[in-house]
Amino acid sequence: MAVKIDNLDAALLKELAADPRTPILELAARLGIARNTVQARMKRLESAGVVRGYPPTIDLQAVGFAVHAFLGVELDQNKIDEIVDALRAFPHVLEVHATTGRSDLLVRIAAQTQQDLLGIIQRVHAVPGVRHTETMLALATPIEYRSLPLVEHLTNNPESA
């Protein structure tokens, strides 16, 4: 069941997205509400699983991982769990999505060089059950992962959810 998000929730999430370390009292002052209201809203959003954590956003290029790619993986369907477990063990694998279409999995990878990427792809190919891969290099990321525009759209247009 979907959690109802109102304008105050959206405003609170926007503030936290801009600076996850903002103290509760400062959030309350910025939003013009009581500290207890901020705490209650945060507890509700966290308990419902809407807010899953406050990790820092890391610029991978700044720490030497300038090559980003998406790997479409075709696999033996009966080995999907084992393949996902194997991919989880690769530190260069940032995320994995089960998909429809020719590829069964879409894997996002970060590497330091193209040669490094080739080695990672070869290791993926060595995983039992992997049949075929297709690699797409990301040349740029003009829109990073985001969710706030959708939350704001939901609160501004609740009938279009």
Indicate the overall shape. elongated
Subunit organisation of the chains: single chain
Terminal CA distance reads: 13 Å
Order of helices and strands: HHHEHEEHEH
Strand content: 15-25%
- The Rg value, from CA coordinates, equals 20 Å
Which percent bin holds the helix content?
A: 25-40%
What is the typical, i.e. mean, pLDDT? 93
Main structural class: alpha+beta
Which stretches are poorly predicted, pLDDT < 50 over at least 5 residues? none
Main sheet properties: 4 strands, antiparallel
- Total beta-strand segments: 4
DSSP summary: helix tally: 6
Strand order of the largest sheet: 2-3-1-4
Describe the structure.
The protein is α+β, with helices and mostly antiparallel strands. It has helices at residues 7-18, 24-31, 35-47, 80-88, 114-125, 148-156, and strands spanning 67-75, 93-98, 105-111, 130-138. It has a 4-stranded antiparallel beta sheet with strand order 2-3-1-4, covered by helices on one side. Strand 2 and strand 3 (105-111) form a beta hairpin. The chain is elongated and about 55 Å long. The two termini are 13 Å apart.
